[in-house]
Amino acid sequence: MIVDTSALVAIVTGEPGYERLLDAILVDADPAVPASCLLEAHMVIRSRFPPAMLETLDATVAGLRLRVVPFTEAQSALASAAFDRYGRGRHPARLNFGDCMAYAAAEAEGAPLLFVGEDFSRTDIVAAAQDSASG
């Protein structure tokens, strides 16, 4: 499975429902996080939480043994196509830059996406958890 920024931040900060996300990762054989989502998670944590939370984020990624997926040229094409189809101003999913990169990673890996929120549920991406859209 591919872990989106929204799911990673929810786990690290203990948002309601984080246990469901954590359980989904723990039972997956090869959970991964795109490098772009890892960067975005660092940015979100830095902007909204005390600096010590960055250590919690890094420890969580290491503890869950999340494989970091590099962003490739092929993913760039997939992300561009995702924006054309589902991007803000084009579709109710309103995918932003980071969302398009997470979508592309899941597509490239042939893996479901673990996320929080409604944006990805309005696309054709396969959700990693049956209720990924709730959060």
Automatic annotation (TrEMBL):
PIN domain boundaries: 1-124
N-terminal signal peptide: none
E.C. number(s) listed in UniProt: 3.1.-.-
EC class: hydrolase
Named cofactor requirement(s): Mg(2+)
Record carries keyword rRNA-binding: no
Residues noted as binding Mg(2+) in the record, renumbered to the chain: D4, D99
Nuclease is among the record's keywords: yes
Keywords: Hydrolase, Magnesium, Metal-binding, Nuclease, Toxin, Toxin-antitoxin system
Domain of life according to the entry: Bacteria
Entry GO MF terms: hydrolase activity; magnesium ion binding; RNA nuclease activity; toxin activity
CDD domains in the record: PIN_MtVapC28-VapC30-like
SUPFAM superfamilies: PIN domain-like (SSF88723)
Pfam family, one: PIN
Task performed by this protein: Toxic component of a toxin-antitoxin (TA) system. An RNase.
HAMAP family: VapC_Nob1 (MF_00265)
UniProt family annotation: Belongs to the PINc/VapC protein family.
PANTHER family linked: RIBONUCLEASE VAPC2 (PTHR33653)
Protein name: Ribonuclease VapC
Species: Rhodovulum sulfidophilum
Source taxonomy: Bacteria, Pseudomonadati, Pseudomonadota, Alphaproteobacteria, Rhodobacterales
Gene field: vapC
